[in-house]
Design brief:
The complex is a heterodimer of chains A (268) and B (678). Chain A contains nine helices and two strands, in the order H-H-H-H-E-E-H-H-H-H-H. A two-stranded antiparallel ribbon of chain A has the order 1-2. Chain A starts with 15 loop residues before the first helix and ends with a helix. In chain A, 30% of the residues are buried. Chain B has 678 residues and is an alpha/beta fold. Among the domains of chain B are: 223 residues, Rossmann fold, CATH 3.40.50.300; 114 residues, no CATH class. In chain B, strand 9 and strand 10 form a beta hairpin. In chain B, helix 12 runs parallel beside helix 29 and helix 20 packs across helix 21. Classes of the chains: A mainly alpha (268), B alpha/beta (678). Chains A and B meet through helix 4, helix 7 and helix 8 of A and helix 2, helix 4, helix 5, helix 16 and helix 17 of B.
């Protein structure tokens, strides 16, 4: 049980953001993330930033947790900023250090691109932090439902996702057990070249593969016994309800935000 | 437990039996004849246990009932509906719900309540109905508190109760359980039995496939299968009246019947009663009668039937040393303890990379963490000290989450302790320089070791360890052969075969051989008897004894108190990550109330001894740990105080060759008995 793989970032708390209909939350998050790409002037940037900050405060998710999930991309952000800073050569020079010059435009591009990307990531992470993986799967399934008409196996894909999430901890624990057992038999997984390493992995991979197949077979039988036929003719335990007092307000606020954003773009 | 759970559907027509099999034959595509002409009617509201050894066809029978398998020949009707009628299979399955053996393989989502809802969702019920059913089903298995937990964080017993709740949510008339407790510890099994009884009292027909004979005592009817045919069918008492048949079929008998046999062998004839309380009364009567005519009785006692006194069999003088808490005992030999734990603490949280487990993660996911904390506490192991003396056998006891796996991981140097020291054959597991030497000294047989098989041939699999030791081919060959012979497999016949094509018992043997081929001086085994039938268990017990006699020190995790009492020199009892008790089996089992508080049992011999005492059989000072010891104590009590000279505790320690488990007929022989029985 040492290797706990937690899927998703869910942070359990009670907040207006947590309570939103996951479909609304998913759709609005996508809208916000998309809108970030159109942010072009300081007023828009300030507005987007204010919105992101408000959402984070409202969700009661610790800011540190959100920033942590952004960290893998942090290096990329810094890198693009540096590129923008030094390679945008238009505009008035701001600083001149020998051959390197930083222009006003370069500095602005560095700030703009990195900040709007940061906002986008933070709000995306916020979605993951305030919605369980299951609810997200349900929401995606529900939003994609119209595509089922054209033969897209939306329901089945959603169930597969749910089962995959369910089996991640089981399989990781089994992997750990196999590693332990083979290590105790003297399997050496270090200090080897690529081919030798691949060969050393056989004693680990084969039992895991066998185990995955066994799980699949048993699970299939259990699902049969529980009357699963296909995804389309099922009802749902979690009914997602659009509540005007809650979700309607959220949509209205989001619409207001978009209008303001457009206004900033047009007027400034 | 709330009683508002699933009720029998009103649609039940009274005349139609729950299920009816007519001369059913099932042949699998590979030619295996799973069932060969079974006719059976299961009445509504009944509680039927189906028992049989491995390969008897009992699992096939279970799956026939809800149309997961259709008969090759013959007919199965569930609630009067022919299971071969494909258009009505869903109807059958919605009324005949099923629970399978592997708790992990029946769950589709990572939230308990959502999983229970899966069946009703498939039935396309309206949402409020689904919600109501989820709540009542979880209440019926006493898991309402864990509705939002992740199944991966639950114990095996809890998972299996979730699976039962999932079945109940279908509002079934018939509940089929296919070996639901095979992977569970005693506590988990008890929970399942209680739930089954309660559901049956509510009017649900229960078919319980099992290989535990004590489960059978709950049923109104027992069907015994062997090689695809029904060999015995009747009330539990009737079935147990055919004791020899049951035994020849490689099935366990309840301890009470085994005791009755042993008493008979010692000249005390008692009526055979499967229920322990009844047996206790019968024995009390017999003892009283005997004491009346004590003189004749004493002379009629067949002396050769009493096993040789086994005080000398308590082989290891070093056992005393094992009791010293800090490892190396005062024993005469300078040899270090095989395994020594010195104030060892261990936490999985401390192991995780620091940079990922910051301040915030501790707060995160409180529900899940609360469940985990309840299961094992912040310390997986806390200040544990004990040692395994060279050549001795220590049994490690405790239920799920008590820290047994952690002890094993630490002992095998798979993890390093957070505090304290673990020494294996005198080598500190922290000492990386001597890691190779340490690995040579200790062998580890994981739980269900057959799941680690990987090679194309049995030979290669067993040879994996020795080759990793860098041994010459010739030496590897000898070791593979020796190891396979040690586990009772024919090396010539089996070496070239694929391990995946073998039977479950053979796979277990090959996996064991793979570790024994390393010739470890110290062996750590995690539940080596789990999932084996009585013959397999007896073989494994004999193997452990032999290895132990040859001087291999062993640390064995077990949840069978009978195995612990029969095999071990020393017991270490874990509870919530602490060493709660340790000492000889006699010392530990004397702390009965303490064991009960931890939810652990006592050996069946001791349990029956208590029932005998309260029924009025005088067993002064006796604390029998094996049925042989108990039988001796009863016989000496019957023969009057004058003859009761055998010191009971010394007798208790006897785990000698007289154990009948070693002399049970094997499966092939069982077949002949079977023929004779019919």
């Amino acid at each position: 049980m040492a290797l706990r793989v937690s899927v998703g970032q869910y942070f359990s708390a009670d907040s207006p953001i947590h309570r939103l209909d996951p479909r609304v939350k998913l759709a609005l998050t996508l809208a916000y993330m998309l809108s970030c790409f159109f942010v072009a002037n300081p007023a828009m940037l300030a507005l987007a930033g204010a919105a992101a900050l408000a959402l984070v405060r409202l969700s009661r998710v610790p800011a540190g947790l959100l920033l942590r999930s952004v960290r893998p991309i942090f290096f990329f952000l810094v890198l693009t900023s540096v590129f923008n800073l030094f390679f945008v050569c238009t505009g008035n020079p701001l600083v001149q250090l020998g051959p390197v010059s930083v222009t006003y435009d370069g500095a602005w591009a560095a700030v703009l691109y990195s900040l709007r990307f940061l906002f986008l990531l933070v709000v995306g992470a916020l979605l993951m932090c305030t919605t369980t993986p299951i609810a997200l799967t349900d929401a995606a399934e529900s939003l994609m439902a119209p595509f089922a008409r054209w033969g897209l196996p939306v329901h089945d894909v959603a169930l597969i996702m749910s089962i995959a999430l369910r089996f991640v901890p089981t399989l990781s624990r089994e992997a750990e057990n196999v590693v332990a057992a083979q290590t105790a038999r003297g399997a050496d997984l270090e200090n080897k070249g690529a081919i030798a390493y691949a060969r050393a992995c056989v004693p680990l991979v084969v039992p895991l593969f066998a185990s995955a197949l066994r799980h699949a077979e048993n699970l299939g039988r259990a699902m049969d016994a529980r009357c699963y036929t296909d995804g389309a003719h099922r009802t749902r335990y979690h009914v997602m309800r659009f509540e005007p007092a809650r979700d309607g307000v959220a949509v209205a606020v989001a619409a207001g935000y978009l209008v303001l954003l457009v206004a900033c773009a047009v007027l400034l | 437990m709330p009683r508002n759970g699933a009720e029998a559907a009103p649609a039940a027509q009274p005349g139609v039996p729950a299920a009816c099999l007519e001369n059913v034959q099932v042949t699998y595509p590979d030619g295996t004849e799973a069932l060969r002409g079974v006719s059976l009617t299961i009445a509504r509201g009944s509680y039927t246990c189906v028992v049989g050894g491995n390969g008897s066809g009992k699992s096939t029978l279970a799956q026939l009932l809800n149309a997961l398998i259709v008969p090759t020949r013959g007919r199965v009707r569930t609630f009067g509906i022919d299971t071969a009628d494909e258009s009505r299979q869903m109807e059958i399955r919605s009324r005949a719900a099923m629970v399978f053996q592997h708790p992990d393989d029946q769950m589709v989502t990572s939230v308990v309540a959502d999983d229970v809802a899966f069946g009703p969702e498939n039935l396309a019920l309206p949402q409020p109905e689904i919600a109501a059913r989820v709540d009542e089903s979880l209440a019926a298995v006493a898991l309402s508190d864990l509705a939002l937990a992740d199944p991966s964080d639950l114990s095996g017993g809890q998972k299996q109760r979730v699976a039962i709740a999932g079945a109940l949510a279908m509002h079934p008339d018939l509940l089929i359980l296919d070996e639901p407790a095979a992977m569970l510890d005693v506590r988990g099994r008890r929970g399942i039995r209680r739930v089954c009884r309660e559901l049956n009292e509510r009017g649900i027909t229960v078919v319980h496939v099992t290989h535990f004979m004590d489960d059978v005592l709950d049923a109104d009817r027992v069907v015994v299968l062997s090689r695809g045919q029904v060999v015995l069918d009747g009330a539990p008492e009737e079935v147990f009246a055919h004791e020899d048949t049951v035994r020849s079929l490689n099935l366990d008998l309840p301890a009470s019947l085994t005791l009755a046999d042993k008493l008979e062998a010692r000249g005390l004839r008692v009526p055979h009663r499967a229920r322990e309380a009844e047996l206790a009364r019968a024995v009390a009567d017999a003892v009283e009668t005997r004491q009346g005519g004590s003189a004749q009785a004493a002379s009629s006692l067949p002396h050769d039937a009493v096993p040789a006194a086994d005080a000398a069999d308590k082989k290891n003088p070093a056992t005393g040393a094992a009791l010293s808490p800090d490892g190396i005992g005062p024993g005469a030999s300078a040899e270090p303890a095989a395994i020594a734990f010195e104030h060892v603490s261990f936490s999985y949280a401390a192991l995780a990379p620091k940079r990922r487990r910051g301040l915030f993660l501790r707060k995160r996911n409180r529900l899940r963490r609360a469940a985990e904390a309840a299961a094992r506490g912040p310390w997986a192991l806390e200040d544990a000290s004990f040692s395994v003396a060279p050549g001795s056998l220590t049994a490690l006891i405790g239920h799920t989450g008590a820290g047994k796996s952690t002890v094993i991981e630490l002992a095998c140097a798979l993890k390093a302790p957070t505090h304290g020291h673990v020494r294996v054959a005198g080598i500190d597991t922290d000492n990386l320089a001597q890691r190779r030497e340490l690995r040579r000294a200790i062998g580890y047989v994981a739980q269900l070791p057959e799941r680690q098989l990987f090679a194309e041939t049995v030979y290669d699999d067993v040879a994996f360890g020795p080759r990793n030791l860098g041994l010459a081919d010739e030496e590897v060959r000898t070791r593979v052969r020796e190891a396979l012979e040690l586990v009772g497999l024919d090396a010539d016949a089996i070496c070239g075969r694929s391990p995946f094509a073998l039977s479950g018992g053979q796979q277990r043997g090959v996996a064991l051989a793979g570790v024994l081929a390393l010739k470890p001086r110290i062996l750590v085994l995690d539940e080596p008897m789990a999932g084996l039938d009585p013959a397999g268990r007896a073989r494994t017990v004999a193997l452990l004894r032999r290895l132990n006699e040859q001087g291999t020190a062993m640390l064995v995790v077990t949840h069978s108190m009978d195995d612990a009492a029969a095999l071990a020199d020393q017991l270490v009892v874990l509870d919530h990550g602490r060493v709660a008790l340790q000492g000889t089996p006699a010392e530990v089992f004397a702390q009965e109330s303490e064991l009960r508080r931890m939810g652990l049992g006592i050996p069946s011999a001791l349990r029956i001894a208590h029932k005998l005492s309260s029924a009025g059989v005088p067993l002064p000072g006796a604390q029998p740990l094996t049925l042989d010891a108990l039988a001796d104590a009863v016989v000496s009590a019957a023969n009057g105080p004058a003859r009761g000279a055998r010191p009971p505790v010394a007798a208790a320690a006897s785990a000698g060759p007289a154990d009948p488990a070693l002399h049970r007929p094997d499966a092939a022989k069982g077949g002949e008995h079977l023929g004779a029985a019919r």
